[in-house]
Every structure is written in C-alpha cells, then in structure tokens.
Amino acid sequence: MIEVKIDIEKCKGCKLCIYYCPKKLIKESKKLNKRGIYVVEFDDSKNECLGCRQCAIMCPESAIEIIDNEIKE
Amino acid sequence: MKKDNPEKILMVGNEVIGEAAVSAGCRFYAGYPITPQNELTAYMSKRMPEVGGVFIQAESELAAINMVFGASCVGERAMTSSSSPGISLKQEGISYLAGCQLPAVIVNMTRGGPGLGNIAPAQSDYFQATRGGGHGDYRTVVLAPNSVQELFDLTYLAFGLADEYRVPVIILGDGALGQMAEPVELEPHIRYKLTNNKKDWALRGNKTGKHKIIRSLLLGKGALERHNRRLEEVYNKIKDKEVRFEGFYLDDAKLILVAFGTSSRICKKAMEVLRSEGEKIGMIRPITLWPFPYDIINKKAEDNVKFLTVEMNMGQMVEDVRLAVEGKAPVHFYGRPGGEIPTEKEIIEQIRGII
Amino acid sequence: MKKIYTKSKILTDTPTHYCPGCGHGIVHRLVAEVIEELDIQEKTIAIAPVGCAVLAYDYWKIDTAEAAHGRPCAVATGMKRMLPDSIIFTYQGDGDLAAIGTAETIHAANRGENITVIFVNNGVYGMTGGQMAPTTLLGQKTATTPKGRSKSREGYPLKISEMLAILDGVCYIERTAVSSPSNVIRTKKAIKKAFQNQIDKKGFSMVEILSPCPTYWGLSPQEAMERIEKVVVKNWPLGVIKDV
Lengths: 73, 355, 244
Known about the structure:
By secondary structure, chain A is α+β, with helices and mostly antiparallel strands. Chain A has helices at residues 16-20, 54-58, and strands at 2-6, 26-32, 38-42, 64-68. Chain A has a single domain, classed as Alpha-Beta Plaits (2-Layer Sandwich), CATH 3.30.70.20.
C-alpha cells in the first residue's frame, strides 16, 4: 500500500493537496500543529492511493513524502 | 622587488589609475562613460583583456556598481569609476557593499555640481564621499591623491585596504588630476601587507554542506544592531591605524593651510612663496579624508595658530577642520566652486588678509 | 518499502515564511530538485531578490548573495564573468525583474550573459502589501490601484518575456505556471532546460512562472490556482516563447 506521509509541523493548511487528490484521500483535520494551524491528514483505509504524487507535487511546503510499502528494496 | 632606478614614464592620470589597479591584481572593471574619466574606462577596455581580466561597459553607473558587487561576492578584486553624477547613482550599491562587508574600489574624478554641473575639476563631493552618500550607518575609506604618482600609489593601496578591512574604498580625485600627465613610476611606493588574504567568506559554490550567504538584511531581534556595532569595530580599527597626511613646516607655522588634492598643490606653491618672504606658513594635507587626521589638527590648534582651509567647493572639508579644532583656534575658509581652480595669487591674498 | 517521493536534499528543513498556498514554495522545491538531479550543487551560486523571496537563502543549501532590488542580473554578470565555470542563477519577482530591474535584466539578456533567470510572476508586490506590479492585469485591484488597473492611468501589463525574446543574446524563454500538477511538471522541465543551457554555454535562459498570491488576490489557495488557469493565462499564454 502507498502511504502519504504529511509533516504536520510544516503544513500551513492551504489544502491544495486535498484539492488535487483525484481519490479524495486527504481530509481536513481537527488537529492543530504547534503553529496553531488546522492541518490535513491522509485517510486511506481502503488502500485506494494510486501513488500519483499530485499532493506532493503541489505542496508548497514540501511537507509530503510518499512511500510504497509493498516494494521490497 | 624595488628597482634602484625605476623607470619613469609620462602618463595621463586617468590611465595611471587603471595601471595601478592592474598591478594590484584587479581583474574586474565595470564602468560607464562620463567626462572627465573616460580615459580610464577606455584604458581598462584595452588593458583588462591583456591581463586575462574582464571589462564591461555597463548600461549605467548603477549597473556597474552592482556588477562590482557580484565580482566581489566571488572573491575577486573589482573596481568601478565615474564622476560626480555617476557616483550619486552608485550610492545604493556602495551602501550594500558596506552592509555586506564586500571589498571594492570606487574612483570618483570629481566634476562641478550639483546636478549636471560642468566637466571642470571640483572638490564638491567631499561630503558625499566622507558622510556616506548612501543610506545607513557606514563608512568608506576615502583616499585623496594630489599627483599622478599618488593616483598610482593610492589606487594600489586602496585594494589592500579594501581586502584587509572588507570595506569599499573611494579614490577621490578630480578632473584636473585625471587629465594631467606627469612622470610616474609604475611601482607602488606603499605596499600593504594583508593579515589574511584567504577570503573564506567568498561565494564559490557549496562544497562543504554549509552554504555561505552574503546579505545585509538582518531582521532577527537585535541582529542589525549587533551587525552595526561589528562594523563600527572595523571602522575604529581603521581610524586607529590608517590615518595618512602630509605636514609642512608645522613646527613654527603661525598659519596652517589645510587642503587636499589639486588645491593642495596650489596651496603648497603659495606657502613656498610666502616662506621665502619670511612668513611662517605651514600646511596639513590630508591624504585619507576618512579617517580624517583630526589629531594632528587638534594638536596644532593649541599652538596659537590660525587655519585656512582652501577647497574647490562651498566649504566641506572645513567642517571637519572645525570639528578637529574644537573651537581652540580660528578656522578660515576660501573656496572656488563650480569647476574653478583657485590661483596661487588668490590664496596668497587670502593668507595676507588673515595674518 | 521504497520512498517514491521525497524532499530534495538541497532544501533545508527551515519552515518557510511564505503564505499558505504561495507559489514560491513550489518553485523553490523545483529549483532544488533540478540542481540535485543535475548534480551542480557544488558549483551553483544563487542570487536572491528583494521581495517575498528575499529569504530564499534560508531554504536552499546553495551559496547565495542578496542583491539590491532589481540588481540580480547585474550582480550575476559580475559573478559569471569572473567564475565562468560556476552555475549562476537569479530568482526574481515581477517588480525586481521588470520594474526597478528592467534595465539590468534587458542588458544582461542583450549581452547574452550565460546565466539562468527564474522569474516568478504573481502580478502583485507581495512583500510590501499587494501593490501594483508591472505584470498586474488590467482591471486588477491592488493596494495602489484600488479601482483596478486602467490603461490610461497605469498603462498595460508589461510583456517583459516577449520583449526579451527579441534580443539575439537570449537563447531560451518559456512561460509556465504552478497552477496544476501537469503545469508544475512542465515548470520543472523548463527550469531544468534553463540550467542545462547554462551548462552547455548557450546564453541567457529564463523561465517565467505564473504563481499564485492568495493573500493579495483575496482568494483561497485553490481559488488562486483556478484564477491562474482561467484568467491569468489568457493574458500570459503558456508555452515556449523562444528556443534557439
């Protein structure tokens, strides 16, 4: 499964990742980071993430890392 | 290696500045045509490629000083030159050089001002040179040659001072010095020994993982104050060690002329004429206008002397003389602004009127 | 497990000061990725502008000089002429490059200086509070055009990229945007080409990147991206403007 790791301390809540995810797997969160911003969170219980990387490509803070847990290195 | 009988050649002042820069290792020059320093720009266009250096006729004096900024950032000895109105354009760049602690040499062959003025020699940029000209708390070393040989020696010295203290250095000449031709030895009479010439601060690409930044914007709490105080320490060192002046007959003078550059040459003649008639006239010729030789003037002010400052302006260096004297002696002023050069006769008349 | 997208090593960990949804963060990342992929970090020197990106040097592990407003192209000229084997790039906003820096930009381009220019065009002066920029669109309201830019009062948006393309010293100019993933990918390709041109000693290369300013456009980050796609590109068409 593909995991979208979001560094919430870098997140500024711009929500571009939410906007550009074709599967709508990123959601607004009720969590606040240390700077008092409501961040976003990745929620993919059904393993639908395609690894298209659009969220990471659009993130202005370079806060997103994408990991493929199925690939054995 | 100093030769026993170094050869003297007849050369024009403006070109001598260029040759001195080349001797000092300057390999970047950017300039813009403006009378009366065009011979220097043209000389550099020919000379820089001959020594593997770079010459650029920039689109403006403003662009030229910023090109010098760039060359200095990467650790190269760089120079620009202009005359009064063009130096006004460079003030922003000079403030940035000072704030970033970048060495550079800026040559001003002063002409009449303000505004477009005329193309005749003047000394009316003394304030601009010594009082900042650009914004912020900073100083530039200001050197005032009065002969073609000094144009060579002081330009050569300027590069040493600039590198040693990481400051911009201004050569404050005038149109007459730039245009005149005198015999000159193309060997520096003063060689400056740098304490450290590695330039570890220069930008040459990040090879160590810790990148270098050259900046003058310091927004952090107290950061800019600390930076200004660090700059002040540098300026205090310069004031301590680099004051230069020439004194004549100071032991018995009753009237001391104070003059720099071209007016000092004429004052010297006037002084010699009056001395031959038995008058006790002396002279102090500041060679560094910043740091200004306050101490010697202050010392002499206690000896019951009068001062006469002679300048080709409406009264600029005279303010420093008054500061130096601290009210202990009378300070007179004689000036010819607008590109006029005082004559020996006028100066002698002024002196006779005072003594 | 394998990381299929990770942050460039050239970027520092410093959180940026940019507004949420600002395009600078995206462009900084693309520049960092290109420098890493071309393996030129050790010989690259950057010149930061005056504008929102004045602190760019806190975000890249690249030797950087902070130039006076508008002067990066002149500073780059001095640097590149003295260190011709270094890779010198300027990173400038619309005011820096096309208002106060117009002369320095045009003449560096005209001399064919072998440098790379990254031009971030968001149509306003962000740093100082949203004033009109040379590239502000007609009708656009800003802090100094409260009734909207008017051609009689303020003149037309300045077509600086098209102007520069006329010059023989310019080898490559492309206009891209960061308003969608495909545009961001296109922007990265253009930036890479602009750096590769310098490595290949081809001349002056520039990438103009349409970027959002949610704060001074008065829009959310998503709306700002949409404005670029629907409104801004009509005035500034994307694509290669020159490529010799």
